[in-house]
Amino acid sequence: MRARHKIFEALKNTPEGLRFCRTWDKRAKYPENQYQNPFTLEEVLEMEGNGVGVLLGRHSTTTINGKKYGLGAVDFDGTDSDLTFEHHVGFDPAALTKTVTVTSGKKDRKQMFYWIPEEYLDVLKKGEYKHEGWANFELRIGDHYSMVAGAHDEMPEGYYWINSPADTDIAIAPLLLLEGWEELSKDRQPKKSFITYRRSQADLQHDSSRVKRYLERYYSPPIDWATPREEWIKVVQALRCLSQEWEECTGIKDKHLDDAHYWCSQMGDYYDPKGLDKCWYSFKRSPSENNVVRINTFFGNAKKHPNWERDQEILNKENEERPKRKKTELLNDIFEAALRGDEDSYAEDFAEMEFRFRRKSNDIAIDLLKLLRDKFTNKVYSVGEVDMTKVKSLEYLLQGYAIKGEVGVLFAPYSTGKTSLACGMVKSGFNGVGFLDEIRKRDKFESLIIMSDGGANRFKEVYDELKLSPEMVSVWASDNQQAITNWKCDLRGLIKLHKYLKANPQKKLIIIDSVISMLSGTPFAYTNNNEVDLIVDFLRSIICEPLGVSIMLLSHLSTDKQGSSGAKRWVGAAGWVAEIRSITVNENEDFTKRKLLIRKDPINGKRVFDYKVNENGIFVPVYNSDMKGDCFGELKQFIQQLNYATGRKVFEKKEFYAIKYSVSQVDKQTKAHCTERDGILKRVSQGKYELKSKYILLNDDSKGQKEAADWDFWKN
Asked: Rounded to an integer, what distance in angstroms lies between the CA atom of residue 433 and that of residue 114?
């Protein structure tokens, strides 16, 4: 009776719409009808058992403001499961709305309950997600239940509330969670999830380069080797596992399915094309690593073949006769293989470097990028004194935003319009007009957008909505239909990008979305400050400066909401940095506009303003009294208004300080008006400036409006 009373006390404040099942040691005691006829709290407490679970999906419902919701749950299952969540869903779980939460008492275990809008209930799928080295998490919904009260086999106190329904409401699932969950649910099989092995593309290529040779040499003839059937299954499973790793790393699907068909086609009884395909797709990586038939099993079993020992004797003899390459020679061979696109030689030489010289893959990758920089720039880099007379001043590619020869970073929370804003820069550059708060024009240019963060189909909506065109911008993105994979920021990726930009000199603005995805599958970690410093420096010295282009990196907001996600050096190493923020009105997000904060700009300095997209699809600023906008533009308007009001055409600089910008900013923009092509001033003497004749609106003599074409330009 005491146990039953304890469970009742734990559950007595739960919402009326919840439905339950009785459990014994976490297993449902009456599974035959619990989903067809779900039990109320009163009913379930009268049943035998030592625990209670709450039913999910449409079985537990509520209505809020006339809208129906079902119950879902996010289950964190141990240490670093929050990192696994961020990796898969795309944001820090610390940003999740406070809600009713239960725990078993085990370290870092908890389950958070959310109301799921009705339109998502049939879209979202239950799934378990893992990452090597971190604990897993689950997204739970549908015909499932979650334990909320009663006994736990490992924890004597049983389940208890972290946030009790007595003092906390079940929150409505935030949009970020719904969108991330929906993306994970696409094309998902309702079976156990894959383990994500975070190996580099170089490692995968090294393994793949050996598959066909091993099949022909150590698994032939297939009919003799693959008996019994369990051995045949191990081979196919291993090839499938390696193919899944390729898909997770690059988006390439079924990389070794053709190899499996070729091998099995020699087997007679074991070969049925449709049957093999069905078997291939049935193999799923187990949540337990111990049950995974990985490619290492394939290579290990090859050693049992008689040909193996003979081949090793020949190889050892060849190695004795062949002089070993020095470190620099081997590094150059790896580099040359990358230039040629010789994947087999690249993988084999890379592996030899790792083994012989005990070098980590990221250290080798850094050495290769240094070699790339030296070869592409024809310079020998060293530490020492700089001749400042030879240093070139910074110059905008797109006034106020993209700097020639520099790397910029634009970061923001999810779904706040980073990609759209970057596309606005692309359009302004193509049309040769000012962007947002800047009225100054620059030379026209074309752009390249690299979508490493998702497939081309995700970008299609933005592309069409903003009326982009192939003449305006080229797009690199994965598309299975066209057999195109994501670009990666490694040696081969930078070589490809360099060759492309050399062949297309009109491409001056490079948008890369995003920093985390462009390094995924490479030896580099976007959270490592030292490696990020090197990556940004290499992008600047290999791509930006030699080719006169600007790279804009898109990134997400950090978990502490203080800067870009990942390493702090993304912001520190970049030459230009901006942040997008959402705007709230009466605690509700205003989707019609955003706030842009230029956090780092070595030419114009910091500034901040609101912006929106007008009915013509053009990004325009929304000025508020407490916000800085375009000092250059406001100075122009101030001077011409003063001329129109007084008839004067000569002014003292101290008059310009009335526009309420900093003295240094006004001084800088006054100088810009005298030197840049869109400027309206010429210097008369120290501290005195004259309005250029073509911009005069009122003459001293006539006191009448000048008939000039520039009148309309000034009004606009």
From this structure: 47
- Give 604's pLDDT tier (boundaries 50, 70, 90): confident
For each of the domains in the chain, give its residue range(s) and CATH number, in order of start.
Answer: 2-185 (no CATH), 201-315 (no CATH), 396-622 (3.40.50.300), 631-715 (1.10.10)
Query: Sorting pLDDT into bands at 50, 70 and 90, what band is 62?
Result: very high
| C-beta neighbour count of 367 within 10 angstroms | 18
- In which element (H, E) is residue 368 found? helix 361-377
Tokens representing 521? 């599958």
Find the farthest-apart pair of alpha carbons in the chain and give their distance in angstroms, rounded.
106
The rounded distance, in Å, linking the Cα atoms of 196 and 557 is 24
Query: Using the 8-state DSSP alphabet, how is residue 700 labeled?
Result: T
Is pLDDT at 245 greater than 80 in this prediction?
yes
- Checking if the pLDDT of 287 tops 70, the result is no
C-alpha dist (Å) from residue 577 to 511, 691, 702: 14, 34, 49
Q: Describe the chain by its helix, strand, coil percentages, rounded to 5.
A: 40, 20, 35
- How does pLDDT run across 504-526, given as a tens digit for each residue? 999 999 999 888 888 877 878 77
Q: Is residue 234 exposed (0-12), middle (13-18) or buried (19+ Cβ within 10 Å)? A: middle
Tokens for 280, please give them: 């291939």
Q: Is the pLDDT of residue 709 over 50?
A: no
| 166 in Cβ contact with 14 (< 8 Å) | no
Q: Residue 519 in 3-state DSSP?
A: helix
What is the C-alpha to C-alpha distance for residues 132 and 91, in angstroms, rounded to an integer?
A: 18
Confidence bin at 555 (pLDDT 50/70/90): confident
Torsion sign over Cα 255, 260, 265, 270: negative
Structure tokens, 163: 């946030």
What tokens does 349 get? 């030489």
The backbone torsions φ and ψ at residue 483, rounded to the nearest 5 degrees and listed phi first, read 60, 45
Please measure the distance between the N-terminal and C-terminal CA atoms of the chain and give it in whole angstroms: 81
What's the half-sphere exposure (Cβ side, CA atoms, 13 Å) at 309?
3
Chain mean pLDDT for the chain: 81
Per-residue model confidence as pLDDT tens digits over 629-651: 678 888 888 888 888 788 888 88
The residues, ordered by sequence, that sit 6+ positions from 497 with a Cβ below 8 Å of its Cβ are 487, 510, 543
Q: Which of 149-153, 263-267, 437-441, 499-503 has the highest mean pLDDT?
A: 499-503
Report the alpha-carbon distance of residue 668 to residue 16 in Å, rounded: 66
Encoded tokens for 685:
């003497």
Mean per-residue pLDDT for 380-397? 85
Number of Cβ atoms within 10 Å of the Cβ of 151 = 20
| Distance in angstroms (rounded) separating the CA atoms of residues 612 and 593 | 5
| DSSP line for 91-149 | S-GGGSPP--EEE-SSTTEEEEEEEEEGGGTTT---EEEEETTEEEEEEE-SS-EEEEE
